[in-house]
Amino acid sequence: MTVGIGAGRYAPSPTGDLHLGNLRTALLAWLFARSTGRRFILRFEDLDDRVQPDSADRQIADLASLGLDWDDDVVYQSDRLDLYSRALRQLSDASLTFECFCTRREIHAAASAPHSPPGSYPGTCRNLTEQHRSAKRASGRPPAIRLRTNTDHHRVTDVLHGKFTGPVDDMVLQRGDGTFAYNFVCVIDDAEMQIDQVVRGDDLLTSAPRQAHLGHLLGHEAPTYAHVPLVLGPSGKRLAKRDGAVTMSDIRLPPQRVIGLLSQSLNLTALDNVWPSDLLDQFDPAALPKGPWTYSPEG
Ligand code: GLU
Fold it and tell me: 210 CB less than 6 Å from ligand 1?
Protein backbone atom coordinates (compact mmCIF):
# COMPACT_ATOMS: atom_id res chain seq x y z
CA MET A 1 0.00 0.00 0.00
CA THR A 2 1.34 3.45 -0.90
CA VAL A 3 1.11 5.98 1.87
CA GLY A 4 -0.93 8.93 0.64
CA ILE A 5 -0.75 12.38 2.10
CA GLY A 6 -4.13 13.58 0.98
CA ALA A 7 -7.68 12.43 1.38
CA GLY A 8 -10.60 11.05 -0.52
CA ARG A 9 -14.19 11.83 0.29
CA TYR A 10 -17.78 10.82 -0.11
CA ALA A 11 -20.09 13.80 -0.41
CA PRO A 12 -23.75 12.79 -0.44
CA SER A 13 -26.69 15.16 -0.46
CA PRO A 14 -28.94 14.34 2.52
CA THR A 15 -32.14 14.40 0.50
CA GLY A 16 -33.39 10.94 1.49
CA ASP A 17 -32.04 7.47 2.18
CA LEU A 18 -29.06 6.29 0.13
CA HIS A 19 -29.98 3.80 -2.58
CA LEU A 20 -27.81 1.04 -4.00
CA GLY A 21 -26.34 3.40 -6.60
CA ASN A 22 -25.25 5.85 -3.89
CA LEU A 23 -23.94 3.02 -1.71
CA ARG A 24 -21.93 1.61 -4.60
CA THR A 25 -20.31 5.00 -5.17
CA ALA A 26 -19.61 5.29 -1.42
CA LEU A 27 -17.98 1.84 -1.42
CA LEU A 28 -15.81 2.79 -4.39
CA ALA A 29 -14.82 6.15 -2.87
CA TRP A 30 -13.82 4.31 0.32
CA LEU A 31 -11.85 1.66 -1.61
CA PHE A 32 -10.03 4.24 -3.74
CA ALA A 33 -9.04 6.21 -0.62
CA ARG A 34 -8.20 3.38 1.75
CA SER A 35 -6.33 1.29 -0.83
CA THR A 36 -3.98 4.25 -1.36
CA GLY A 37 -3.51 5.04 2.32
CA ARG A 38 -5.52 8.24 2.13
CA ARG A 39 -7.74 9.69 4.81
CA PHE A 40 -11.43 9.42 4.01
CA ILE A 41 -13.85 12.23 4.72
CA LEU A 42 -17.64 12.14 4.87
CA ARG A 43 -19.10 15.48 3.85
CA PHE A 44 -22.79 16.30 3.63
CA GLU A 45 -23.73 18.66 0.84
CA ASP A 46 -26.70 20.07 2.68
CA LEU A 47 -27.11 23.52 1.14
CA ASP A 48 -29.72 22.16 -1.21
CA ASP A 49 -33.35 23.07 -0.55
CA ARG A 50 -34.34 19.40 -1.01
CA VAL A 51 -32.56 18.40 2.22
CA GLN A 52 -34.72 16.24 4.48
CA PRO A 53 -34.52 16.27 8.27
CA ASP A 54 -32.81 13.15 9.75
CA SER A 55 -31.59 12.10 6.31
CA ALA A 56 -27.90 12.69 7.14
CA ASP A 57 -28.18 10.63 10.34
CA ARG A 58 -29.84 7.79 8.46
CA GLN A 59 -27.19 7.90 5.75
CA ILE A 60 -24.45 7.81 8.41
CA ALA A 61 -26.08 4.78 10.04
CA ASP A 62 -26.35 2.93 6.70
CA LEU A 63 -22.75 3.67 5.72
CA ALA A 64 -21.44 2.59 9.13
CA SER A 65 -23.54 -0.60 9.10
CA LEU A 66 -21.87 -1.53 5.80
CA GLY A 67 -18.42 -1.39 7.39
CA LEU A 68 -17.37 1.92 5.85
CA ASP A 69 -15.49 4.28 8.13
CA TRP A 70 -14.16 7.81 7.87
CA ASP A 71 -11.68 10.11 9.56
CA ASP A 72 -12.32 13.28 11.53
CA ASP A 73 -15.74 14.64 12.26
CA VAL A 74 -18.47 14.42 9.65
CA VAL A 75 -18.56 17.72 7.75
CA TYR A 76 -21.78 19.63 7.01
CA GLN A 77 -21.58 22.38 4.43
CA SER A 78 -24.25 24.33 6.30
CA ASP A 79 -21.68 24.83 9.11
CA ARG A 80 -19.18 26.35 6.73
CA LEU A 81 -20.93 29.39 5.30
CA ASP A 82 -18.28 31.78 6.65
CA LEU A 83 -15.59 29.89 4.79
CA TYR A 84 -17.54 30.18 1.52
CA SER A 85 -18.23 33.91 2.09
CA ARG A 86 -14.53 34.52 2.67
CA ALA A 87 -13.57 32.60 -0.47
CA LEU A 88 -16.12 34.54 -2.51
CA ARG A 89 -14.76 37.82 -1.17
CA GLN A 90 -11.25 36.79 -2.17
CA LEU A 91 -12.39 36.07 -5.70
CA SER A 92 -14.28 39.37 -5.87
CA ASP A 93 -11.28 41.29 -4.52
CA ALA A 94 -9.24 39.73 -7.32
CA SER A 95 -11.87 40.98 -9.86
CA LEU A 96 -12.77 37.39 -10.69
CA THR A 97 -16.52 37.76 -10.15
CA PHE A 98 -19.37 39.84 -11.51
CA GLU A 99 -23.01 40.38 -10.69
CA CYS A 100 -25.52 38.76 -13.00
CA PHE A 101 -29.12 39.93 -13.17
CA CYS A 102 -30.33 37.51 -15.87
CA THR A 103 -33.33 35.29 -15.38
CA ARG A 104 -33.10 31.64 -16.32
CA ARG A 105 -35.31 32.33 -19.30
CA GLU A 106 -33.05 35.13 -20.58
CA ILE A 107 -30.01 32.88 -20.30
CA HIS A 108 -31.77 30.06 -22.05
CA ALA A 109 -32.86 32.30 -24.92
CA ALA A 110 -29.39 33.80 -25.35
CA ALA A 111 -27.57 30.50 -24.90
CA SER A 112 -29.52 28.87 -27.69
CA ALA A 113 -27.92 31.31 -30.11
CA PRO A 114 -25.69 29.56 -32.67
CA HIS A 115 -22.16 28.76 -31.47
CA SER A 116 -22.87 28.84 -27.70
CA PRO A 117 -22.27 25.47 -26.07
CA PRO A 118 -25.63 24.12 -24.84
CA GLY A 119 -26.62 25.50 -21.45
CA SER A 120 -23.61 27.77 -21.16
CA TYR A 121 -23.83 31.34 -19.91
CA PRO A 122 -23.69 33.76 -22.82
CA GLY A 123 -21.87 36.53 -20.94
CA THR A 124 -24.78 38.98 -20.86
CA CYS A 125 -23.86 40.76 -17.59
CA ARG A 126 -20.13 40.28 -17.76
CA ASN A 127 -19.30 43.78 -18.92
CA LEU A 128 -22.15 45.89 -17.59
CA THR A 129 -21.20 49.42 -16.69
CA GLU A 130 -21.61 50.59 -13.10
CA GLN A 131 -24.66 52.65 -14.25
CA HIS A 132 -26.28 49.59 -15.75
CA ARG A 133 -25.62 47.59 -12.61
CA SER A 134 -27.07 50.28 -10.35
CA ALA A 135 -30.16 50.47 -12.53
CA LYS A 136 -30.57 46.69 -12.41
CA ARG A 137 -30.05 46.60 -8.63
CA ALA A 138 -32.66 49.34 -8.23
CA SER A 139 -35.14 47.17 -10.10
CA GLY A 140 -35.15 44.94 -7.02
CA ARG A 141 -33.88 41.57 -8.21
CA PRO A 142 -30.81 40.51 -6.19
CA PRO A 143 -28.00 39.48 -8.50
CA ALA A 144 -26.31 36.11 -8.70
CA ILE A 145 -22.52 36.20 -8.45
CA ARG A 146 -20.68 34.55 -11.32
CA LEU A 147 -17.07 33.66 -11.88
CA ARG A 148 -15.27 35.72 -14.50
CA THR A 149 -13.53 32.99 -16.43
CA ASN A 150 -10.70 33.45 -18.87
CA THR A 151 -11.14 30.25 -20.83
CA ASP A 152 -13.94 28.26 -22.37
CA HIS A 153 -12.46 24.78 -21.88
CA HIS A 154 -10.46 22.92 -19.27
CA ARG A 155 -8.92 19.47 -19.35
CA VAL A 156 -8.94 17.03 -16.46
CA THR A 157 -7.48 13.57 -16.10
CA ASP A 158 -9.71 10.82 -14.81
CA VAL A 159 -8.58 7.38 -13.69
CA LEU A 160 -11.45 5.72 -15.57
CA HIS A 161 -12.08 8.17 -18.43
CA GLY A 162 -8.55 9.31 -19.27
CA LYS A 163 -8.16 12.88 -20.47
CA PHE A 164 -11.45 14.73 -20.56
CA THR A 165 -11.92 18.23 -21.88
CA GLY A 166 -15.15 20.03 -21.10
CA PRO A 167 -16.67 23.48 -21.43
CA VAL A 168 -16.14 26.12 -18.78
CA ASP A 169 -18.32 29.18 -18.54
CA ASP A 170 -18.92 32.05 -16.13
CA MET A 171 -20.49 29.70 -13.60
CA VAL A 172 -22.70 30.81 -10.75
CA LEU A 173 -20.92 30.93 -7.40
CA GLN A 174 -23.79 32.33 -5.35
CA ARG A 175 -27.40 32.44 -6.43
CA GLY A 176 -29.52 35.56 -6.15
CA ASP A 177 -31.19 34.15 -3.03
CA GLY A 178 -27.78 33.95 -1.31
CA THR A 179 -27.35 30.16 -1.64
CA PHE A 180 -23.83 29.12 -2.58
CA ALA A 181 -23.66 26.96 -5.69
CA TYR A 182 -22.57 23.32 -5.60
CA ASN A 183 -19.69 23.85 -8.07
CA PHE A 184 -18.28 26.60 -5.86
CA VAL A 185 -18.55 25.06 -2.39
CA CYS A 186 -17.36 21.70 -3.67
CA VAL A 187 -14.09 23.26 -4.87
CA ILE A 188 -13.61 25.35 -1.73
CA ASP A 189 -14.23 22.32 0.49
CA ASP A 190 -12.05 19.95 -1.50
CA ALA A 191 -9.18 22.43 -1.27
CA GLU A 192 -9.66 23.31 2.38
CA MET A 193 -9.97 19.65 3.36
CA GLN A 194 -6.88 18.72 1.30
CA ILE A 195 -8.90 16.34 -0.82
CA ASP A 196 -6.65 15.09 -3.59
CA GLN A 197 -8.87 12.27 -4.85
CA VAL A 198 -12.45 12.85 -6.00
CA VAL A 199 -14.52 9.71 -6.60
CA ARG A 200 -18.17 10.20 -7.54
CA GLY A 201 -20.81 9.21 -10.08
CA ASP A 202 -19.95 9.71 -13.74
CA ASP A 203 -22.97 11.99 -14.15
CA LEU A 204 -20.65 14.61 -12.61
CA LEU A 205 -17.78 14.13 -15.07
CA THR A 206 -18.90 17.20 -17.01
CA SER A 207 -18.68 19.29 -13.81
CA ALA A 208 -15.03 18.39 -13.31
CA PRO A 209 -13.53 20.82 -15.90
CA ARG A 210 -15.43 23.76 -14.34
CA GLN A 211 -14.43 22.77 -10.85
CA ALA A 212 -10.82 22.13 -11.77
CA HIS A 213 -10.68 25.49 -13.56
CA LEU A 214 -11.99 27.31 -10.50
CA GLY A 215 -9.51 25.42 -8.33
CA HIS A 216 -6.75 26.45 -10.74
CA LEU A 217 -7.76 30.14 -10.48
CA LEU A 218 -7.53 29.78 -6.70
CA GLY A 219 -4.08 28.23 -6.98
CA HIS A 220 -5.11 24.68 -6.02
CA GLU A 221 -3.74 21.59 -7.63
CA ALA A 222 -6.34 19.46 -9.42
CA PRO A 223 -7.31 16.30 -7.52
CA THR A 224 -7.18 12.85 -9.08
CA TYR A 225 -10.65 12.18 -10.45
CA ALA A 226 -12.46 8.85 -10.77
CA HIS A 227 -15.99 9.22 -12.12
CA VAL A 228 -17.52 5.82 -11.57
CA PRO A 229 -20.35 4.23 -13.54
CA LEU A 230 -23.87 4.65 -12.26
CA VAL A 231 -26.48 2.07 -11.34
CA LEU A 232 -29.52 2.08 -13.60
CA GLY A 233 -33.01 0.91 -12.72
CA PRO A 234 -35.08 -1.52 -14.80
CA SER A 235 -36.30 1.36 -17.02
CA GLY A 236 -32.70 2.01 -18.11
CA LYS A 237 -32.70 5.33 -16.27
CA ARG A 238 -30.53 6.16 -13.27
CA LEU A 239 -31.68 4.11 -10.25
CA ALA A 240 -34.19 6.00 -8.10
CA LYS A 241 -36.42 5.38 -5.12
CA ARG A 242 -39.41 4.91 -7.42
CA ASP A 243 -37.75 1.73 -8.76
CA GLY A 244 -38.82 -0.15 -5.63
CA ALA A 245 -36.74 -1.74 -2.91
CA VAL A 246 -33.42 0.04 -3.38
CA THR A 247 -32.42 1.35 0.07
CA MET A 248 -30.93 -0.58 2.99
CA SER A 249 -34.17 -0.40 4.91
CA ASP A 250 -36.19 -1.64 1.91
CA ILE A 251 -33.99 -4.50 0.79
CA ARG A 252 -33.54 -6.03 4.25
CA LEU A 253 -30.37 -7.94 3.40
CA PRO A 254 -27.51 -8.29 5.87
CA PRO A 255 -24.86 -5.60 5.24
CA GLN A 256 -22.18 -8.06 4.15
CA ARG A 257 -24.61 -9.43 1.55
CA VAL A 258 -25.25 -5.90 0.25
CA ILE A 259 -21.50 -5.31 -0.05
CA GLY A 260 -21.25 -8.73 -1.76
CA LEU A 261 -23.91 -7.74 -4.29
CA LEU A 262 -22.29 -4.39 -5.03
CA SER A 263 -18.81 -5.90 -5.22
CA GLN A 264 -19.92 -8.61 -7.61
CA SER A 265 -21.42 -5.93 -9.84
CA LEU A 266 -17.97 -4.28 -9.83
CA ASN A 267 -16.08 -7.53 -10.57
CA LEU A 268 -14.36 -7.19 -7.19
CA THR A 269 -15.29 -10.59 -5.78
CA ALA A 270 -17.15 -13.81 -6.49
CA LEU A 271 -18.23 -14.11 -2.86
CA ASP A 272 -21.79 -13.41 -1.82
CA ASN A 273 -20.90 -12.01 1.59
CA VAL A 274 -17.97 -9.69 2.13
CA TRP A 275 -16.97 -6.59 4.05
CA PRO A 276 -15.29 -3.61 2.38
CA SER A 277 -12.03 -4.34 4.20
CA ASP A 278 -11.93 -7.81 2.56
CA LEU A 279 -11.71 -6.09 -0.83
CA LEU A 280 -8.80 -3.75 -0.14
CA ASP A 281 -5.88 -5.98 -1.05
CA GLN A 282 -7.05 -6.88 -4.52
CA PHE A 283 -8.72 -3.54 -5.39
CA ASP A 284 -7.63 -2.54 -8.89
CA PRO A 285 -9.32 0.50 -10.49
CA ALA A 286 -8.21 -0.68 -13.95
CA ALA A 287 -10.39 -3.79 -13.63
CA LEU A 288 -13.61 -1.89 -12.84
CA PRO A 289 -16.41 -2.12 -15.39
CA LYS A 290 -16.64 0.94 -17.62
CA GLY A 291 -20.39 0.89 -18.14
CA PRO A 292 -23.40 1.15 -15.82
CA TRP A 293 -24.92 -1.73 -13.87
CA THR A 294 -28.64 -2.34 -14.23
CA TYR A 295 -30.32 -3.38 -11.04
CA SER A 296 -33.81 -4.85 -10.92
CA PRO A 297 -35.20 -4.87 -7.40
CA GLU A 298 -37.28 -7.97 -8.17
CA GLY A 299 -34.52 -10.00 -9.77
N1 GLU B 1 -23.56 15.70 -3.63
C2 GLU B 1 -23.32 15.08 -4.91
C3 GLU B 1 -24.22 13.87 -5.04
O4 GLU B 1 -24.78 13.43 -4.05
C5 GLU B 1 -21.90 14.62 -5.08
C6 GLU B 1 -21.00 15.74 -5.32
C7 GLU B 1 -19.53 15.38 -5.41
O8 GLU B 1 -19.13 14.27 -5.03
O9 GLU B 1 -18.78 16.25 -5.86
O10 GLU B 1 -24.37 13.36 -6.13
Answer: no
